[in-house]
Here is the input.
Amino acid sequence: MDTITLTIDGKPVTAARGATVLEAARAAGIHIPTLCAHEDLPNFGACRLCIVEIDGVRGFPTSCTTPAVEGMVVRTHSDELAELRDNTLELMLSGHPNACLVCDHREDCERYRPVATKAGRSTRCGFCSNRPECGIRRMAIAQHSRRLDLPTIYSMHKVERDDPFIERDHNLCVLCGRCWRICEQIHGTPAISIIHRGRHARIGTAFGRSWVESGCTFCGACVDICPTATITDRYARWYADRQEAAVSPCTICPEGCSMRQIVSQGRIVATAMTSFKPESRLCAVGRFAFPQLINARHRLTRPLLREGGELVPVTWDEALAAVGKMLLAKRYEGFVAIVAESHTREAKFMYEKITREIMNGRVAYVPPGGGFDQIHPAEVRQDILAGRVKAAIVTGDYLSQEALGAIEYLVVIDFLPSAASERADAVLPAAVLAEAEGTFRNAAGEVKRLARAINAPGEARPEWTIVRDLGKAMGARAVVYTSVSQLTAAIEGDRPPPHLPGRPRDTLKDLPTRFRGHLIADHVPALAALGLPTSRQAQRLRPTDGFAIVEKSEIVPNFHRLVIKAPAVARHAKAGQFVILMVDEQSERAPFTLVDWDRQAGTITLIVEDVGRASHELALLQQGDHIAHVSGPLGLPLAVKKVGTVLVGGGCYGLGAIYPIARAMKEAGNRVICAAEACSEFGLYMEAELRQVCDELLIATKDGSRGIKGGVQEVILNLCQAGIRIDQIVAIGCAFMMRMVAEKTAHLGVSLQVALNPIMVDGTGMCGACRVAVDGQTKFACVDGPFFDGHKVDWEGLFARRGAFLRAEVEALTQVNGPGGRKTCPSNPTVALDVLSAEC
Here is the structure.
């Protein structure tokens, strides 16, 4: 290889001729900060963070676009370079939410909240799913500086949720260009590019078309290469501690595309291309549907036997013994095993072995996407319908109702319920996809090794072991395989599955529609927007009557003001109480604090923070929509009396929640000081309303953009240091904020009341999720509170309990797929894009 020698930071470096300075530095282990550069992309030079000094070269060239030449002398670090990079980063962050980077509480916050909070918009690192991988965050923290002089401008771009699988928050975009550049590199013609100019520039499609219309194939490369969470996988984004498992083929269709499998907490949550090369691209089903299919909520997890007309759970030993006995009794009466062409080689080998050597029967294969009419050989179909097949093993949803009624003894080995499993005499749960080891021969004839990345749910087992153990139960001594590798070595002469028409990963046409006979879109509803068939109802209908939304607006990012017609609640509401809402009959029950009420108009006002499934559903509603259920007022109202000077502090949703508290305290004759906390100036709201009900309004922002730099606790401490007496504190906001107030004011000897609404789930005391220890006694926030003595709350226990529900909350959130309204998908106008999972 032709090489050159240059000097970087005083170190002789050898590089390939034609390499850039950045590539030469990386090869030598020398770090140069960059954001837009990527080893799989052509040089671009957009972010200008990789600037260097080169002897004899004017200015500060970008190292990613400057060719390295013989004898070149390069400096990657100097005071001037550091200042220029800091200025560039500061300019970048002025249009990117950055409050957490300069917040004095960042370390404490991340210790107590190691996982980012789910949110509709990522307004700071604590609300960003990309926090662990964010390059901007790493660079900003590496500066060891908490100073950002430029104001943060939140653009309030609409978060785009109009396409299946992908969400786009342009408020996070720094225009590095990685997404459209990788799209162009993989597909030739990019489906997206930079549109508009100046401060309005963003990533988009030509003429504002949907991504489906733009030619996007949903290969996911743009998601995987985006450094800022501007483009995210809706299903996977909130799963934390994601780790990459071994590369393995996708066996949903015969292509057998290799993929990287991403695991979190024992679940496959995403897949990704093995490289950013055209030949490595994945189809939409492999990239986005694979994780949802394997995590389908109605997996078969226990062996079942029919007893007295009902399928009842049994042990594996009981199931194998019973099935083996019945199959042996019918071994000469006509037996068939119906197997998918896309099974592993090991599973097909075992089916062939027990069918031919023990049962004297036949193995019939089903091609990818096929059903009963495609089973081959064709005479098997004829024999089933004629009643000549007395016993069968079926490995998927392949049989027609007529065929199901014609088989005397039916065993189903599958992973999802179906018409066959409902009719079966025995159901045996199988491990599939990333849960199974073995090998797979794809349509091109290539044998690929399957790597098991996760355990199967419940008692499901690898298919080859199920069939082997059935053989043992029938007394077959030749079935002696004890490992996958031993079985693989015994396979000879297997044939590849038939090729699908076209290459589905090149286009949205000819995508696989079924896996083991099951319609994939039944379990991945977003696929219906791409035209894939589904047997389930396309959309959940919103209520057309009930509690009407009189007003609805997003007042600041993530915070929605709803005025709802609820006369009975308005008539009895008191300061500190809450209501339980359900958007429709299938929604979660969720508590929301009353912000205001109008007894004469019969309305209540709520501030809803978009941080979970229930709040997200509410955030999608519009004026004129209806809510199915509003129950309340609930909870014990705050005890209001004249005590002297009361400080009422609120943050996040608490900015609205403290309004009726301050009003009630003022009416009781107290001097009221309101402390309003927000991450940045753009997060403040209801200032005018609060000023009307308090004697003094003090503002604190985490980035110092308004008021003092800090939070409610800093406001309190500053007042105390100034000699101002405070007789009572009421704090409402996130659990972290209330904990910090409790810890920082413990030495003051002042009464502190905190509202523990954030830990509520059911709101009636039945679920026990809001159980908390207060002064050593067990309390339930929804019925005993929500207000408690903040200095006596067991905060460690409270945070531990909140962590226990993180996975369930993430799984619930991913079921909300689209935006509000009745917008439909261009490729399938019958499908509404606010479709909710049929699994909800």
